[in-house]
Structure formats: C-alpha cells, structure tokens
Amino acid sequence: MDQENDRRFVPAGKHRLPPLPYPYDALEPVISADTLRFHHDHHHKAYVDGLNKAETALVAARRENNLANVKCLENELAFNGSGHILHSIYWTIMAPEDCGGEPGPAVAKNICKYFGSLGAFCNQFVTAAARVEGSGWGILVWNPAWGRLEILAAEKHQNLTQWGSIPILVLDVWEHAYYLDYQYDREKYIRQWLKLINWVEVENRLLIAMQGGLPLLLACEPE
Q: Residue 14 pLDDT more than 70?
C-alpha cells in the first residue's frame, strides 16, 4: 500500500492536464469539437494552473512562516483542486455515441437497488443536474457510509457535500460545457449527454469504490 501511495504521490505544484482519451470530434454531434477543445484545453487547464499556483504559494508560505494569505490560498486550492478532479473524471466517463456499452452488473444492480430502475435514476439525474442553480455538476457517488449510490447536485464544487462520498459519474453543467452547442437549453444538453456515458468506465470506478479504493485519483497523475 505504501508503494502504491508513493507511486501516486503528486508533489506540490506538479499537477498536469490529462490528455483527452479521444479526438476532439469524437463526441459529435452531442458535443462539438470546438466545445471540447475550449473546455479541455482552456477551462480545465486553468484549473490545473490555478491549483499548481496555489500549492506553490502555500509551500512558500510554510517555508517563510507567513500564513497571512492562507484563507485566500485555501479557497483557491479547494476551487481549482475540485475543478481539476471533477474534469479529469468527466473526460473518462464519456465515449463516442453508441460506444459506451450498457450499465455493467454492479452498476445495474446498485442503481435498481436504490433508485428502482435505470429509467428512474436517469430521470432524477437529469432533473437534478438541470436544476443546479448557476454553475455546477450533477454527480453520481458511492457513499461507503451508507453502502449505496446517491445523486448529488453540486452548485459550488469547492464546497464538498456528503464527506467521504466517491464520485462515480460526473456531468459538467457549467455553461462553458454546453452553451456553444445548446445555448440556454441545459436540459436538452443533459438528455443528449446520456448517450455518451462510458458505462465500462463507470462500472470500473464503482467496483474500485466498493472495494474501498479511490478511483477519482486514477485520473490525476503527476507531471
């Protein structure tokens, strides 16, 4: 376990932008190449840069024993760090339309066990994500404390909810994720986005989470 932790250790200020697992145009017509390029290359990169900057500043503050700006730096750490983690998951749980397969046995069993059916889950997920106030995320999490899945509507991703929950499937509903393609119609974007879910990846993430692992870390390798 120590060797595994050492391998995944990310030094302060050394996070990197993960490459997309597909070409820019792979998710068309649901998500255009222009949207994907701007979203990944600029918006996600800004989170990575902001996270590295905040961590580097905190290293200097500790070294100099000057924590006067710690509140601001901790806020930057939370905002940019959460944005980096969620975006890293977002890219991996999407696949070209009709290539994502069907929900695997663990996902299907746990969705039906709590939500009643896949259809009921999708309806709740779409509605919750569509009604996020302002910018945020729709997130399917595994809650180890309760031994089940749950849907969270994250309106400010730096403000964690249900501590200890592990993101399994995430949907970005900030306007930059869909406005070029769908303008103000967030719900249309969400319903079309369901076609892109990479259920193989979601199954893998759930299995790791149920075994006590943290699959969210798999997408955040250091430089």
A: yes
